[in-house]
Batch of 4 targets.
Target 1
Amino acid sequence: LPSGLLWATCNVGANAPEEYGNYYAWGEITTKDEYTEENNETYGLSYSQLQSQGYIDSNGKLTSQYDAATANWGGDWRMPTKTEMQELINNCTWTWTTQNGVNGYKVTSKVNSNYIFLPAARYRRGSSLYGAGSYGYYWSSTPSRHNVADAVLLYFNSGNQFMLYDRRRYGQSVRPVVE
């Protein structure tokens, strides 16, 4: 897909492209039973605090010890940045489809026709799963510079794909990349 970056064929915690896989709060590397402000490691930390405490590097992306892709898959796998996710939106054709009974997008490169499938796995809040089959929420490694509770994610539904900010405490999908 775009810019020589390789996108994994499935989410962290999944064994097939259409499996939802695990849900992670932003900046956390393990799953949990409840996704709340009280048990969120980065809740309320400003951008500068995230840097000083080692969650993000000088470029503003998660360090390997707090990156769910790196921590769970090892090697050079990591979570994509906000910019890389925007490139995925801009440089690919997005086709809403069903793969093995699971709704999501076939995302096809306009450059080389390679593709990935992103299941509509939505997110976890508290102990509940919301909107699975209708929406996709995929974390980037980029925190909000302005809101102490948010990070950047790729959002989609059956008609749209765009970047937005959401609460870091929510459990969301992670699709690794490697260079």
Target 2
Amino acid sequence: ASPALASEVARLVALGTVDQAMDTLGRRGVQLNRKVISRLAASIAQSGLSYRDWVVQKTQAGARGQSAKGKRLVIACDGGRIGIRYRKSGRPRKSRRHGYDGHWKEPKVLVVYEVDEKGRKVKDGLCRYDATMRDADGLFVVLTALLGELGAQEAKEWIVVGDGAGWIWDRVAGLIEALSFDATKVTQVVDFYHASQRLNEIAAECKGWSASDRKKWVEQMKRLLREDRAEEIVDQAPILFKGRGSKKRRKLFTYFKERAGKMRYGTYRKKGVPLGSGAVESCVRRVVNLRLKGNGIFWNLETAEGVLHLRAQLLCGRWGPFHSDGIDPP
């Protein structure tokens, strides 16, 4: 297959199923069976993953780019969920197929994009997506390499946004150190809407409250968040929950106690810092859920890794550069 045909086949597989790709190609007069389409897409995916590994090696050796110089970068990570198949040992069935066990596994997704001084995403600005089936450490290896390739150490500011997941915040310091970035130029933000959801969970535990009481309390606590007074929310714990079973319910406030320093929403708004992680949550939906997640859908780990990488490059608008780099990694 020519590079152009292989690229188009991989693009169609990233967009939809192999059967859909086969139908689209057939309507264009290109007759390829499922095995050929799968093989071509896997080849392009493997080239892209090889290039990504090469970038990791280069950045670990100290190579740095310049694309992000002087820019405000938003960096966000999140996880999704897809089904993975694990082949059973033993003889195949009468159909000559091996059985498998299906389990849920969390793919990790990262987003890096550029914002202006008001915190709005820059149109046609720097934007990168990627996704992997690796664990949290593996994702941050990919993220570190990506930021190094962009020259993020030359950026004006980093804004790290995420939900309350500890696996994200525990690794931010290592990310800053790996790229020798000035920690005073890094703003860490817990997603305001996740914090609001936690307030609703706390209100739901107040069994004697009416719906209007819960709504009123949540709005009062949101006002405290907007005024940089997250610590005062923690002070509500001994007031709301007393006596039997209170210790378990007070743990709900740990979310705010441990992350209060990342909840200065009033200050963030004045500085043009995004308050939410909607960009990465949208990325999880578009890259993972709309292609790889569904009832009865189970993937091999290697295939899932390849399709995630293909789809991430396609949806962030970098298919051309990705294909020219990935088809023949140095």
Target 3
Amino acid sequence: MRAVQFLFSGVMAACVLMSGCAHHPPAPSPATTTTLSLAAPQHGDFGHYTLALTWQPGFCTGPEGSSCQADQPKTPLIGLHGLWASRPSDLIKAQVPVTTWWRKGCSLYEGDAASPPPTFSKALSHRLSEVVAHTHSDLVAHEYSKHVHCFGMDGEQFFSVASQLRDRFEQLPSARHLTAESGMVIEKADLTRQIEADTGSLPERGVQFQCNKTPQGQSVLAQIWFTLKPDSLSSFPKTDAFMSSPQVQDNCPARFLVPQWGN
């Protein structure tokens, strides 16, 4: 009996020393370990990015989304609107109002000259067609012209980073919980707490919500906006990536509907 116990103990000791028997924690998801960064060769001294994600059924009920085409994908529910740089310092020094920058973007530098349409790899084109709303006016081309081109950033890299940031949020428990609440009226404070359970405590206005109105006047979730440090994109969705938005842009009431398609 002792011989058997001794043999068993020896086997267990050897097993601990062998990497195949030792316990290892699960490897981090590649989506959260990929380094994400963007360099702006021109006008790169802006203060923050706004990562604008869409709740597709709500986005497609509003002024921008009312033009969603018949081929609008029904999944995924969480989409990508854009990644928007704030005003560069020269516009701030020139006292250009922030609302003008929001409205005109890169056209403040480029006038009415149309920027060339972006070109992407087949893989990225397919990915963007899945996650960006199918508006009648090409939303990807609009985002590139208004928010990317004047910074001299490579379109492929920019939209790859933006789509990966969107993917990181969608993988969070709070995003999965939000998807499960489709069709329900929820508390904005509850959604914020669920997001902070994943990200850590966020600064004031680190996350803000945009709502649209149905023809019946009901507020429905349309977008989630995150205010991010330009040099900390790789940290998203952890709290180190966030900063407080200088502007209050949250227009959702305390309670709103998380709409389904057809609501």
Target 4
Amino acid sequence: MDTFLGALVQGVLQGGVYALVVLGVIVVAKATKVINLAYGGILLVLTYLLWWLVDSMGLPLPVGLVIVLAAGVLVGFGIERLLMRPLMGRPEMDMITFLMTLVVGFTVMQGIAILAFGGVPQVMPRMFPEGNLNFAGVNFTYTSLFCFATAVAMFLAFVAYFRYSKNGLAMRCVSDDMIVSQSLGISVKRICSYAWAVGAVSAAVGGVLIGSMYAVDTNTGSFAMMRALPVLLLAGLDSLPGGFVGALLVGLAESFAGAYIDPHVGGFRELLPFILMLVILLVLPNGLFGKKAIRRI
């Protein structure tokens, strides 16, 4: 029973962080129809940047966080303006943008992380209280609890932004139909820039939380993407609440696999995200909450 409760609690706590990680991918996908494979690389560079600002430069942690969030906004705007906007309207745009984000994330950003910060494992500055908590016989750290609370709060803040702010409503309109949005006076290019900026800010916060739980190294971006993609496929590209539910399901699946299968089949937990992606693509190609495309002939 203790093993079950421990896996349940740990899965929920991990799933909350995964929800924030996948948020940035969903935002860009909804507004621009681009699957942002650069997300992991952006997260990696911004996480290393925070470590460098606080540990090497000696800046206070709050100052470092503000600088990293501002850098995330600039990175998002820069990628959209310099790399993605020139591709809009081109034939086979989906494939070109897919390859562009792949190259940016796994080559350019990872190269920047290695050249600028060395790419060696680093321990992030402590942001949350040390120690463990015991709940119903289950032990978990203050760090995992505060990371979960921060991720959920940020996720709810982003959802509220999309539902009630002017720019958030414009993003939802653009995600439904870019042409109609333009006819209504909405600047599609500006909204796409905002979507990339929000996605990069989400990457910054997600990287900070992941870095608080694990050491930061060149695999951190890949780790984030290998959790984000199964959640994205499970939730579908259209639903932010679905992203949260999908993240909890993936976190629980990973936690239970680690508790019950890894002792007998070592490394299965690391293989699980790939298995989930294959199963979801075969069984639920539109995800649990995705919209089914209807084409009239």
